[in-house]
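User: Quick sanity check before I run a bigger batch. Here is a single chain. Can you write out its predicted 3D structure?
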Amino acid sequence: MRSILKSLAIGLATLPLLLSCKSEKMPETIQKIICHRGMWSVEGSYENSLSSLANTQKNGFYGSEFDLNMTSDGILIVNHDPTIQGHVIEQTPYDTIKVLKLPNGEPIPTFEQYLVKGGKNKKTMMVCEMKKHSTDSLTIAAVDKAVELVKKHNMEDQMIYISFSLHACQEYARLQPDNEVAYLGGKMAPQAVRDSGVNGIDYQFAQFIMHPEWVKQAHDLGMKVNVWTVDDASTVLKMANLGVDYITTNKPEMARDLLIKTKKTVMPAKK
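Assistant: Done. Predicted structure follows.
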């Protein structure tokens, strides 16, 4: 009986500690983690699916990146490639595409469905990549449609726009001057991108290994710096040490855990 009471007393004494550990917030990392095509490595999910966006939200990552293509009748869908299951998206009406399924059984989401889901968690940024279409005019039309939908759903504050098309970036910057817009193409120095009217760069990590000075140059110009797609620990640390603002990765948990372990976190404000 005495041993039972002793065990109970120890348990009650440690309960507040256990509760405080559970409720303790995960440290905020200096570099914000963006899930590439959403957090799709979770069982039952798939890249660019609504579940990959939901997983990003649930696990508290800064942003969820996704890709947009426009159908022949002007519907924006979330898909990386210009084709899907044998259909060229920009030549195919949405009625044909909406019956198709992703490998995990989910339907291919529209941009509007993504916005509705994204709006349910205001803390998760939506990192929207407009894919290059077959002509600049089609790409610009897709950008215009995207911004129209963003405004319809009052999502401007949650959007970051990116593209390999400089024309698309310039159109986003014209229509949404208060938003971050980043050019993906690489090779252009920060000054050239800024002179084009675009306020961010989002380059493959090899570009920053060749041109580490571009990170500081961009920051000196008031630009944000994102890097893709960083899936190994050593490159995560290299990019963090360079001082990039965002790290886009297929392995968000690895990247976040590593940044926390190496103390690349925001110091909490003193009370």
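Residues 4-23 have pLDDT under 50 and may be disordered.

User: Great, the batch can go ahead then.
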